[in-house]
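**Polypeptide and fold**
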Amino acid sequence: MKLEIKIDTAIVEPETVITTSAMTDEVNRVVNYISNLENTSFMITGQKDGKIELLDQENIIRLYAENGKMFAKLDQATYQIRLRLYELEERLDNEKFVRISNSEIVNLKKVKGLDLSFAGTICMELENGEVSYVSRRYVSKIKKKLGL
């Protein structure tokens, strides 16, 4: 892929133009990456002990649904989240976070190891010692994302 950057002091806001003969996987990845740059600034808030706190995406290990409520697990605490899983998926950096089931999203930077020995699923060991399982529906997506 060829890259060209033009500096023009008259431009107020950066603009991205992609010139291509066809939409390819490579072009789609670039478009998705640039589109998601705007989403990385979204803040996520969590509630704990009656207080609302801003959660840094870098510190989130996993987000999961349990008993009809959403939670964010960080190193030091668990927070209740008011957003739904699909809304979180839109706000999170898709280079770091991946959905592993209908009820859970994990931060790939917080995955310590993978166990592929389970038939049809993947066991993820997280940095905090917890274990999460990739449902069969998401296994191929996870393998593709991790290059397995």
Notes: The helical segments are 25-39, 85-91, 136-146. The chain has a mean pLDDT of 86. Strands lie at 44-48, 51-55, 60-66, 69-74, 78-81, 97-101, 104-107, 111-115, 122-126, 131-134.
